Amino acid sequence: MKRSRVGQVTRAFVVLSLVAVLLSPTSAFAKTRADGGPLANLDPAGAKIHLALSSFPTAPTGVGLYILQCLNGVSAGNTKDFCDTARQLWISTSPGASFAPTADIVLAVTGNVAGTDCGVNKCSIFLTFDHTNSRDRSEDQLIPISFAAGASTPTKPKDTIAASIDGKELSTSIPGTLAYRT
Questions:
Q1: Of the ranges 22-36, 92-106, 118-132, which one carries the lowest mean pLDDT score?
Q2: 140 versus 173: which is more confidently predicted?
Q3: What's the structural domain count of the chain?
Q4: Which range of residues forms the domain containing residue 123?
Q5: With CB atoms 3.0 to 4.6 Å apart as the test, which of 9, 79, 139, 143 could cross-link to 125 if both were Cys?
Q6: Structural domain includes residue 93
Q7: Would you say residue 43 has pLDDT above 80?
Q8: 181 inside domain
Q9: pLDDT, average across residues 2-13
Q10: What's 81's domain CATH number?
């Protein structure tokens, strides 16, 4: 009785393990590997990170990656709000790419992303498929980076709105009525 129970448990474990392996995303084994640095103690005023890629995706043809600095917790759908898209790199064999996959890739980073201090909120380098395969999340990965203590780059300035009516400046210290036509 004990042997059959142990056999059942063993078979169940083997079956569950096999199912887990078969259902796990195969891309976990196909992720591009990014090696390089420096990744720690970076100058918050600006630093350059050198990266070398291996296991770069070759299918579908012409596919590439975007590499950019982001706040931790970013996903491909919200890079505009949480990443430095102005310094984003496009890595591809296609014409017009920032770098080829075999090149010494140089990413410029600062201690401030989207108005947020990377010393307070952690930042990373984010890799994701480019526009040719943007629905595939299998290459999404974050590589943590850290900055040296000290003054970080300035945050974005606050918006200021100035208005005038008939050439007279509006002021918050002078009472008035604002009307509009419909």
A1: 22-36
A2: 140
A3: 1
A4: 30-145
A5: 143
A6: yes
A7: yes
A8: no
A9: 58
A10: 2.60.40.230
